[in-house]
User: Which sequence fits this backbone?
């Protein structure tokens, strides 16, 4: 049962309750797309003159695409102004879990008018799979100097705060109580904290990182200017810390960080309380 005020159990056009993405994906294409379309922020539709009913732009062309295969409990939503564009304006990937929870795998909201930084490509122009297949250092330096965080190819539209309440209500309407996610970078984890997420695993590491960046401690001492990503002073901001961690300052992998949001409840977690804005 839905718990958020004014929210209802999601049903199909015949009134049958829907409890999972797998249930939604059994519906006819038009019906399931209308249900999934409610997750996309209204401000995005308005900003780019896209109809939330037809998902077409003023030129009549389709701008919103849904990948929601029958028989599977997953959905991908991509919004592109032109089909040949490399980067989506809005990219969302969600999935059912075996515990009747919702996994927020990816949510990327790009500003298409901002410059692109090719941090996701190796020296041969191939996808580096979030730097697991090599880094593009010159592009990373440009990106960092422009104020972006690790793995960001564009500035964002600052629309996650529009998206998350819609997503919470959608998850709640399926009778689910938990959203789970895996932050890919330190700044992602801090950002999720601000939205009320708590840690399944990784909280101890986050607290150790904060302690290590305090004056005179191990990570702060490693900010010795030995690389552009390890400049003195980086310990004071999420931006600086995130790039230093991306550069390997922890000397151990950034992994096994799992977080969750309980629907209708915001955790008061803050593992970097003394941070200042970059």
Assistant:
């Amino acid at each position: 049962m839905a718990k958020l005020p004014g929210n209802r159990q999601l049903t199909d056009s015949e009134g049958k309750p829907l409890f999972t993405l797998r249930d939604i994906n059994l519906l006819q294409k038009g019906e399931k797309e209308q249900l999934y379309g409610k997750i996309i922020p209204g401000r995005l539709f308005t900003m780019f003159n896209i109809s939330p009913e037809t998902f077409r732009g003023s030129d009549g062309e389709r701008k919103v695409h849904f990948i929601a295969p029958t028989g599977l409990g997953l959905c991908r939503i991509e919004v592109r102004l032109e089909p040949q564009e490399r980067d989506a304006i809005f990219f969302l990937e969600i999935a059912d879990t075996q515990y009747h929870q919702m996994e927020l795998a990816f949510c990327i909201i790009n500003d298409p008018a901002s410059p692109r930084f090719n941090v996701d490509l190796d020296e041969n122009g191939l996808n580096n799979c979030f730097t697991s297949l090599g880094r593009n250092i010159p592009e990373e330096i440009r990106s960092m100097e422009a104020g972006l965080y690790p793995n960001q190819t564009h500035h964002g539209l600052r629309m996650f705060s529009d998206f998350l309440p819609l997503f919470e209500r959608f998850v709640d309407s399926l009778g689910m109580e938990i959203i789970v996610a895996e932050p890919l970078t330190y700044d992602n984890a801090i950002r999720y904290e601000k939205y009320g997420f708590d840690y399944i695993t990784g909280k101890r590491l986050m607290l150790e990182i904060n302690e290590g960046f305090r004056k005179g401690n191990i990570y702060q001492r490693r900010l010795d200017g030995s690389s552009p990503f390890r400049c003195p002073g980086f310990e004071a901001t999420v931006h600086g810390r995130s790039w230093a961690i991306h550069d390997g300052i922890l000397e151990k992998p950034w992994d096994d960080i799992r977080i969750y949001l309980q629907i209708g409840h915001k955790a008061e977690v803050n593992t970097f309380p003394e941070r200042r804005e970059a």
